[in-house]
Amino acid sequence: MQNDQSIKDMVKDRYTEIATQSKSTNASSCCGAGGCSTVDLQIMSEDYTSLDGYLADADLGLGCGIPTQFAQIKAGDTVVDLGSGAGNDAFVARSIVGEDGRVIGIDMTQVMVDLARNNAQKLNLSNVEFRLGDIENMPLTANKADVVISNCVLNLVPNKEKAFQEMYRVIKTGGHFSVSDIVIVGQLPTELLQEAEMYAGCIAGAIQKDTYLDIIHKAGFSDVRIMKEKAIDLPDDILSNYLSADQIASWRNSGTGIYSITVFGVKAKTCGCGDNCCS
After folding, report:
1. How many separate domains does the chain show?
2. What pTM does this model have?
3. Angle made by CA atoms 206, 256, 13, in degrees to the nearest 5
């Protein structure tokens, strides 16, 4: 079994490679993993092209939702984007916070940070920055962010409990998060769970939906809501890289589901007198 550091190293190496691939290659596989499907569709990623702040060079097709859609970002906010990649969600967030706000992207892969910084220069943005860092130990002071966003990244983090605890630490009291991620309902085939390629592809690293929501609650967040949910249907030509035809048929009949969810949660004010009593 891989330890946390070996998983991080594998993900970092894979996403360094992904950074050099085309958007079409990334979008037709699983969060950029290999085993590219011959099916002409975007398996997980959403269409950003109509959004303010969109920059084609920053869109690698790696997401599984649009977290800014439900993030309630306001002009002047400080937004932190976890696993910011080439900057796609960060630039959309910047279009909302405006010149008086600030966006900080964090990514553990140097080539992604470099891509994002280059893209920010193309847009001549002075209030967007990208930092190299680990989501489990963020290079940020406490109570920094009004809003935290993330797109199909936390499933890659081995210690999800620590990641959400760090999110709670860096969000201001009264602030909130909006995260798009992949979760599981049922049991994935062992062959998928053991494949490093599928971990980098956001599948093997995903956990049960109920467990995921429980981790968020235990980190201290309240008003936790699933804002959007959609089933992810992996084509047979991707699954056949890991499973036999009989295994694929058995899995499809098992009731197991892979879902993209966008979750919202609040770091609520506390005053020691019960819920809803603080002004």
Report:
1. 1
2. 0.86
3. 25
